[in-house]
Amino acid sequence: MLRKIFSSKLFKAGLILFTVGISPLLLYVLYEFVTGTKGGNPIGPGLLFVVTSGPGVILMAVGIVLALLKKDTATPQ
C-alpha cells in the first residue's frame, strides 16, 4: 500500500513542495536554537511556508486518494 502511495507523482510533487516550503523556516529555527540568538523575525521563510504548505498538503492528499483508487493491473484476479 505504501509503495502505491510513494509511486504517485502527485504525492511526490506535494511532498517536495511542502519540504521546500518548510525547510528555510526550520533551518532558521535550528539556527536560533543553536546560537541562542533571540528576537529575529523570519518573515520571508514564514511567508514561503504559508504559501507552499496548503498546495503541498492538497497535492499529497489527492495523490494518496488517486493511488489508493487506482486498480492494480499487474495482479491477476
What this model shows, in words?
The protein has 77 residues and is mainly α. Helices cover 77% and strands 0% of the residues. It has one domain (2-69). The protein is built from 3 helices and no strands. Helix 2 (9-35) runs antiparallel to helix 3 (43-69). It is elongated. The model has no long low-confidence stretch (mean pLDDT 90).
Short description:
The protein has 77 residues and is mainly α. Helices cover 77% and strands 0% of the residues.
State the low-pLDDT regions, or none: none
Number of helices: 3
The count of domains is: 1
What Rg is obtained from the alpha carbons, in whole angstroms?
18 Å
Kindly state the number of beta strands: 0
List keywords for this structure.
single chain; about 80 residues; mainly alpha; 3 helices; elongated
Mind sketching the topology for me?
Elements: H1 2-6, H2 9-35, H3 43-69
